[in-house]
């Protein structure tokens, strides 16, 4: 087998695949963060906690109700989204008119509370979630073995991201959302119920995080800390892509997942900081982010 | 007995945060009329329009429109009563194309104009469909902002300074379009600083000063009252 810089191709491709999978989760999460920031002007620190909730919802639906993977994959995001709607209606909507800092503090507090609550009830240890029978096994690509579930994660998250992007860029509802970002009171004066739209936007984006959590359950273990360990990277992704740029968030997420994978192959010691090095460079060269509209 | 006015504004007060901007505005508009609000900068003309459509936070008084008090109607339901708002800053969305801007507000009432009809009224917009809305000239953006509400079936139009910062040729085109709309039976409130423009279409003028209506002048009596007006406007 050929090597690249002393690394066997199979290992390299394996790491690339891992990077793409991580990137898929980053994409689902950063997409939601970017939309929430763009439309609601809220830096949603609770995003990781909602991701964790999605994982736990999946685990609880399986372990106490015995529901299968596919039902879970639909129900978990709905549950998390509904909770998001409640949070928006009760707390967040009161903070839109004042400084970003307040909503940041609120969502950070919610994240801490949720994580603490789950740690208290379920313990810190991870809960295993089996890979659904229909997605076990894998395909031998000749140069490497591709586990079915991992392929599914990449396809599912890319499909969801693409659908979301299309809905925002190409539909009438998306036009309302984009316009409401620019001038919410005028959109309201045209007869559109902007407060309701913001609630649904938040619920949808948080639901995306729940979907990511349910999708991640069979791959990683479900644990109270799973959200806080991923969310920092996701924030870096959003900063690199440009706050509020939706397409940028998706592309950046996948690219950074791959960069992380490559670093792990060639210089493992740096893999956990690779994303942040990129972030520093981007902030130095293009502070508003790679894909932001204003240069 | 005279017909009840279409809009009857009584003791309207409004605040921006802590500052009290309107101190009891009274005026009425009858169906099919063009009424202007004139006055110096800061007199409260724009705030009056914004209060009607619910863009201002705190309001008091009453604005009875077709029997309902607009101050008690949820902001997103005002447009559904057939009120079309054209804001001072025109409010063209930069993330939407000209056509998307035009098609943006939902049509809440029957009888709205078709896109072709709007292009007939404002030929400058024709053939610009895919241009980004904010790349149009100021005058063209104004036409787009007016055309946009005509599609919704609104028959009561609130126009905030449509001539501000716009070339005289375009002002004439907008004036001609407004006269066509008036002939079609539209009711219009026009906020205007340009007296000549206002006089060319309005039936009556209300003069605002420091958040109050201080005078009402029928259009035919405008010339006779020029001295008084100039004093109000500080010209």
UniProtKB/TrEMBL annotation, chain A:
Primary location group: membrane
Transmembrane segments: 12-37, 73-92, 104-122, 149-168, 189-217, 229-259, 266-285
One Pfam short name: BPD_transp_2
Cell compartments where the protein resides: Cell membrane
Keywords: Amino-acid transport, Cell membrane, Membrane, Transmembrane, Transmembrane helix, Transport
InterPro entries: ABC_transp_permease, BCAA_transport_permease
Entry membrane topology: Multi-pass membrane protein
The keyword Cell wall biogenesis/degradation appears for this protein: no
PANTHER family, sorted: ABC TRANSPORTER ATP-BINDING PROTEIN (PTHR11795:SF442), BRANCHED-CHAIN AMINO ACID TRANSPORT SYSTEM PERMEASE PROTEIN LIVH (PTHR11795)
Family from the record: Belongs to the binding-protein-dependent transport system permease family. LivHM subfamily.
Name the record gives this protein: Branched-chain amino acid ABC transporter permease
Organism: Shinella yambaruensis
UniProtKB/TrEMBL annotation, chain B:
SMART domains, A to Z: AAA (SM00382)
Keywords: Amino-acid transport, ATP-binding, Nucleotide-binding, Transport
Gene Ontology molecular function: ATP binding
ABC transporter domain ranges (all copies): 4-235
A Pfam short name: ABC_tran
Protein family per UniProt: Belongs to the ABC transporter superfamily.
UniProt name for this protein: ABC transporter ATP-binding protein
Species per Swiss-Prot/TrEMBL record: Shinella yambaruensis
